[in-house]
Specification:
Distance between the termini: 25 Å
Largest sheet: 4 strands, antiparallel
Strand content: 15-25%
CATH architecture: 2-Layer Sandwich
Helix content: 40-55%
Shape: globular
CATH class: Alpha Beta
CATH topology: PF0523-like
Order of helices and strands: EHEHHHEHEHHH
CATH superfamily: CGI121/TPRKB
Number of helices: 8
Radius of gyration: 16 Å
Number of domains: 1
Structural class: alpha+beta
Number of strands: 4
Length: about 170
């Protein structure tokens, strides 16, 4: 089972922020991964990355042995950890998504509440992920190496599908 939060967060110190996420993850024995929401092409993108990462870990053919990192790799559609980390969090004010993956859902509300308090997130509706502004379109194209020619060939409205294709192709490239 997984849930995610979308919101605005101010990060002064990345190491401190990640340390807080790790402490909550250890406390509840869950995986938590935070990412730049500007590089997420909708809920289907997150669901696909989480499902593929969980399956890879369960089948023993994952790239890493850390579920959070595996989710980041799939979301980024990249095998290289260093390149996938650019999809992670950075200092400053930004929209982010925080994903919680738990085998048992009984503590999920407690985890979500503690996360909200710990990271002082101004929660936004999940629909924010679905909205592709001009700025987000440019970020997605750059990050996922999607060319204008490729978009023109499949249709300008197919950007989300091209990102999902990158996520799916990671399994092929493993």
């Amino acid at each position: 089972m997984f849930r995610y939060l979308v919101g605005k967060v101010r990060i002064a110190d990345v190491e401190e922020f990640l340390g807080m996420l790790k402490a909550i993850a250890r406390k509840y024995s869950v995986a938590i991964q935070a990412m730049d929401a500007g590089l997420i092409a909708g809920e289907a993108h997150i669901k696909s990355a989480v499902q593929k990462a969980v399956r890879a870990i369960q089948q023993g053919n994952s790239i890493t042995n850390d579920l959070g990192m595996e989710i980041l790799l799939y979301a980024a559609g990249r095998r290289q950890i260093e390149r996938a980390l650019t999809m992670g969090v950075s200092t400053g004010d930004d929209k982010m998504i925080v994903i919680v993956i738990a085998g048992d859902s009984k503590d999920m509300e407690s985890i979500i509440d503690e996360l909200k308090r710990g990271i002082s997130m101004k929660e936004l509706p999940h629909e924010v992920l679905e909205t592709i502004t001009d700025e987000k379109r440019l970020k997605l194209k750059r990050f996922f190496n999607i060319t204008d020619a490729e978009l023109k060939a499949v249709g300008e409205d197919k950007l989300k599908q091209l990102v999902l294709e990158r996520v799916a192709l990671l399994e092929v490239y493993k």
